[in-house]
Amino acid sequence: MIDDEPRVREVVSAYLAREGFKVSEAADADTARKILAGPAPDLLILDIMFPGASGLDFLHEVRKHSDMPVILLTARAEEADRVLGLELGADDYVVKPFSPRELVARVRTVLRRSRPSLTPASLDYDGLTIDVNAREVVVDGKPVDLTAKEFDLLAFMASHPKQVFSRGQLLEQVWDSSAEWQDPATVTVHVRRVRHKIETDPTSPRWLQTAWGVGYRFQP
Question: pTM of the full predicted structure?
Fold first, then answer.
């Protein structure tokens, strides 16, 4: 957990420890880098504002070499900041002030959804192959690098071809979170990111299509 507020770290760490988690704390970027240089943690809780670096810059740095799940903590309620964090690869965010119990629930959710159990083991759609067990995606013979949540979203939709899902339904199924806790923009951002990685023309998608006024479908 990276946050420059000692009280926030103390409370969150206490709640997480009570639930069986082992927490390493950092108040600045240099300390965080030393922690991350050791055994990789299962999840990173990252404050958007802390000494030594912008949280968003630090997230960009982390994403260069790791796809570990990341939950952002932010006092910024503006949509632009939330969307930017998601576009940089965050899996979830919590706006301060927040309930420690809610944060613990989100930690469990993100960890649980980072390695979903999906069947069948492989999904093949004329040039698009999704290996669920290996968590690998190949488009026209070329591997595609997806974050954990991007893979979860694509694999879920591809396992339900032609079925239309609203953003609220995708929040529940892929993020295991109700729309009350998550901003539907989370889904929109992740769909856009996946399209840019798997579609020849993201503005006219072949696979991840928009069902106007309803949500999204995977078109085989």
Answer: 0.56
